[in-house]
Design goal:
Chain lengths: 279, 279
């Protein structure tokens, strides 16, 4: 009996409102309307990397959507239940507004649903780091929606449509622009470019996700004495950039070798500095 | 035992992939990313109103999102299981891309998930029909996203944010504009206006849902010898309109008595003709 319980604990991959299980009510507003948020967190040696930054963005998202902010301490305890024995894994936290009601109006009293799941670390070729990646330029544009910009919400159809524009496994990511021609982010990543010796990354005001690794790199850059500018970036500027790299919480940093037909030096001086600081 | 089974059948309110139950896998892409579509259908005397039109829009949405188109005959059988004994009810059908994968890329082989649920008919005051409704003008704008315009997808955060702008139960709906100032639709409805003796309704090209009741009214109007124009409509034109009404599959038609501070004649001649044709 004890053995069975122990096995169950180590095999456990999902906690829903603190209980082991992998099913949620079909009436949950996360499913009905995409009414919620998520975080994807790297687990290294049983620890949640950049935990406070993830919790801070999650709380910001909840406040902006008027979803009850989850108790970060409770989330940490649950994350540790799933991850403390994992050397390398991916933790995903979904917070939905909760269960209730047909109709867009949020119920007056509703408990947010929390879904915490652990996943195997994705296997990516080492060459993504050492030789850089190839990138697609997506036709699908990001819509302008400042009330959702920055937060990591569950309405991800734009990213799904964009990600399904290419099938070539040699292409690792796709860049998405907004309707004004500003290149904003990858389907699953943020990006930085070195333009005229300056490290620049798109502002996340009208669309896009304010990535945790993006913030971390900005802070790292400043520590290294590299100034960073957040601003609008057009495609022709990107083609003229000296260096280009993408980042997210799981992949860390991948230099870009090729964007559509344009080639970049891999890994340029600034990219290497950033990668050295991170890894 | 038979009695128990009979009770279970009549109490049944949700079928998931054809089986009674109200839980779905937390890894379903409908929850993870809002990766799916839905239809809300009026049940009257056990029959699904405008069934073929709903199935047609659902199939169009599936094709555009590259989700496997569900078998409409199977959906009808399942809808009848839930609804054949219902005099008046609401049927909701959700189709998600299915269960699978962490990441935006759609899995190569995946079975769509179908969630069919029946809900009580909502209670709205008769005055909504006889005296018209009051409407709010939403601050939240609809984003321009032609790849999603027209279809009834699960990414509904814009509508949720807009619907939560007002709490006054005397206000029945809110109108939403796009970023160019065109008034596109209600949070849960389409609208028609009579402007210079012409029935007009917004085009649904950059955003908005192509409502089934909207299409039905357009067809009805033509049958009544009333021409209908789909075009962009600005707010000042709406204020100058002679008549204004909203529609969806459940409410049918509600004349608008007041939009923000502006009053309309209820129900004007064209609105009455449309309501007579529908009810």
């Amino acid at each position: 009996m004890l053995l069975v319980q122990y096995k169950k604990m180590t095999d456990m991959t999902v906690l829903i409102n603190g209980e082991p299980g992998d099913q949620i009510a079909s009436s949950d507003r996360g499913l009905q309307y995409g009414d919620g948020l998520f975080e994807t967190i790297a687990i290294k040696n049983g620890e949640c990397e950049h935990w406070y930054e993830h919790m801070s963005r999650l709380a910001d998202g909840c406040q902006r959507l008027n979803i009850r902010v989850p108790n970060a301490q409770q989330l940490l305890v649950e994350a540790q239940q799933l991850c403390s024995d994992k050397a390398l894994a991916v933790l995903k936290i979904i917070i939905t507004r909760g269960n209730g009601g047909r109709g867009y109006r949020a119920p007056d009293r509703v408990e947010a649903t929390r879904i915490i799941s652990v996943h195997p670390w994705p296997s990516h070729p080492d060459e993504n780091i050492t030789q850089g990646i190839r990138m697609h330029l997506c036709d699908t544009l990001l819509s302008y929606q400042p009330v959702l910009a920055g937060i990591k919400h569950l309405n991800r159809l734009e990213q799904i449509i964009a990600r399904n524009e290419w099938n070539d496994p040699g292409v690792s990511e796709g860049l998405m622009s907004d309707i004004d021609g500003n290149v904003v982010e990858g389907t699953m990543s943020n990006y930085f470019a070195v333009i005229n010796k300056e490290l620049v990354t798109p502002e996340i005001l009208g669309c896009g996700v304010a990535g945790i690794m993006r913030s971390h790199i900005m802070a790292q850059a400043i520590l290294h004495g590299i100034s960073v500018c957040e601003r609008k970036i057009k495609l022709d500027e990107l083609y003229a950039a000296d260096e280009l790299f993408i980042c997210n919480s799981i992949i860390g940093v991948w230099p870009v070798r090729k964007l559509a037909d344009h080639s970049y030096k891999v890994a340029g001086e600034v990219t290497e500095q950033i990668m050295d600081g991170l890894i």
